[in-house]
Amino acid sequence: MSGNNWRISNSSITQVDRFKITIDEVLLANKETQNFSYIEFTEGVCILAITEEQKIITLKQYRHPLQSTEIEFPAGMIDENEEPIVAAERELLEETGYHTEHWQSLDYFYPSPGSTTEKIHLFLAENVKKVSHQQLDELENIEVEEVEIKDFCRLVEKGNFRHGAGLACWARYLSKTNN
Questions:
Q1: Residues 53, 80, 138, 157: which is the catalytic one?
Q2: 95 is an active site residue
Q3: Cβ neighbourhood burial of 168 (10 Å; 0-12, 13-18, 19+)
Q4: Digitized pLDDT (tens) for each residue of the chain, 179 residues in all
Q5: Angular region, 103: left φ>0, alpha ψ -120 to 50, beta rest
Q6: What is the pTM of this model?
Q7: Within 10 Å of residue 169's Cβ, how many Cβ atoms?
């Protein structure tokens, strides 16, 4: 595959709440001009947390854009100048009250590279233990549940677990354990 021949001739950025919306005027290889818009995101983390009893920590929380309660893995944004692993440890503790010393990176992925810059770092947290109460933000109302692995597999199979970062995390975990 050849390199990119697009050239940005003009760019505008609009901040809308927590999102930056960028519109680039791009000069294509065929010399035509086209607008290309995308959303800039802060990097994030997603954690597959497994207890000593081999149960997966899941969250149920209301997601306003979907206007439904979704089942997810612990996840969140990386703060400025924060390392991804530190963000993962913080998010797991804040959202669930669970903690562990047993962490493994499962790499990262781009959920929607055609329309966002979002990059999510995936982590496996093993032998997690409940050590405190949740420390939720004012917009968070999260119910934590420990789910048997076989039951979690059924949630995925039946389409009841649709969390994109969680599915990516689960796929990386399965790839790792099946090699």
A1: 138
A2: no
A3: buried
A4: 455 778 999 999 999 988 899 999 999 888 899 999 999 989 999 999 999 999 999 999 999 889 999 999 999 999 999 999 999 999 999 999 999 999 999 999 999 999 999 999 999 999 999 999 998 888 888 999 999 999 999 999 999 999 999 999 999 999 988 76
A5: beta
A6: 0.91
A7: 26
